[in-house]
From TrEMBL:
Name the UniProt record assigns to this protein: Glycerophosphodiester phosphodiesterase
Domain of life: Bacteria
UniProt cross-references to PROSITE patterns, sorted A to Z: GP_PDE (PS51704)
PANTHER family for this protein: GLYCEROPHOSPHODIESTER PHOSPHODIESTERASE, CYTOPLASMIC, GLYCEROPHOSPHORYL DIESTER PHOSPHODIESTERASE
Any single Pfam family the record assigns to this protein: GDPD
Record domain GP-PDE: where: 1-232
Species annotation: Alteromonas arenosi
InterPro entries, A to Z: GP_PDE_dom, PLC-like_Pdiesterase_TIM-brl
Length: 237
């Protein structure tokens, strides 16, 4: 079972920051998941459309300019203030040994986003196969497929769907990413029968890691990915 860092190593550094991502890139894990919002002609990493939780500001993203957002502190790591990064900054990091899972939050112009990825990934020598693009907005996944079918896509859900993984498979997604609170053996088996890999979020308890491994889950998203990977390696030994 593979391990992804959830919003970077968000259990040790402010989520979706360069510090959290760089911590993850030092670990022997599969990849790193981050959240992406469009802002002006740029893309920024943040999970919520309100800044209340991450920055202590009672403002929405659309009430601030890109310059203001990039100057917004979102916590500290090792006594260094962390700020909201751009996706371009993140793509300049060393991704040679890791996948990058981009969870799309609000992307009003998908063609612009795809062109942006081509430009910045080419400059950073990041192969398309290193990207996993996921979203709860399944229309975005369909748009991605129409514009750039070569990208791997992950169908995100927090619900136990009546048709299980049928819609994700019908759309041609490769991953079925589901909340730990609703996943079970039946839905994992259904996804596998349809040719989908299953990833589960958010997993930080050892008992959950054991159970998910037993029911055949392919990957987990963890706030403490180093600890999760070490625990799984110890069980393998």
């Amino acid at each position: 079972m593979q391990v992804f860092a959830h919003r970077g190593v968000s259990g040790e550094a402010p989520e979706n920051t360069l510090a959290a991502i760089q911590l993850a890139l030092k670990l022997p894990i599969c990849g790193v998941e981050v959240d992406v919002f469009a802002c002006e002609d740029e893309y920024i990493l943040i999970h919520d459309r309100w800044l209340t939780r991450t920055a202590g500001l009672a403002k929405r993203l659309d009430q601030m300019s890109l310059a203001e957002l990039l100057d917004t502190p979102v916590g500290e790591h090792n006594s260094e203030t962390q700020y909201i990064p751009t996706l371009a900054q993140v793509l300049t990091l060393d991704w040679r040994n890791h996948l990058l899972n981009l969870e799309l939050k609000s992307i009003p112009n998908m063609r612009h986003f795809c062109d942006y990825l081509v430009q910045h990934c080419k400059a950073a020598n990041i192969a398309p196969t290193q990207l996993l693009i996921s979203s709860f907005h399944h229309g975005y996944l369909d748009e991605i497929h129409q514009i750039a079918a070569h990208y791997t896509r992950g169908w995100l859900t927090a619900s136990y769907l009546l048709n299980r993984a049928e819609q994700a498979a019908r759309m041609g997604c490769q991953w079925f990413n589901i909340d730990a609170d609703v996943v079970d053996l039946a839905i994992v088996s259904d996804a596998h029968k349809r040719g989908l890999k299953v990833a589960v979020y958010t997993v930080d308890e050892s008992a959950d890691l054991i159970w998910l491994q037993q029911i055949g889950v392919d990957a987990v998203f963890c706030n403490h990915p180093g600890k999760a990977q070490a625990y799984l390696d110890k069980r393998k030994a």
